[in-house]
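As a warm-up, study this chain.
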Amino acid sequence: MLDFITKPCVEADILSMLDRTYVRLIEENQSGRLVEDWKRQHEDTQLRSAIMGMS
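Now compare it with the structure written out below.
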């Protein structure tokens, strides 16, 4: 999603767009962290299974 500000604009338009962008970046960062956490847990489970199978 892209936001556009047309000229002339007022300060409130700029601040609103920056707020939406900030929220979007925070949400994307949190989503990325969740995926990385899941991958790490999945890798740990696979490693444990492999070690248990070697015993």
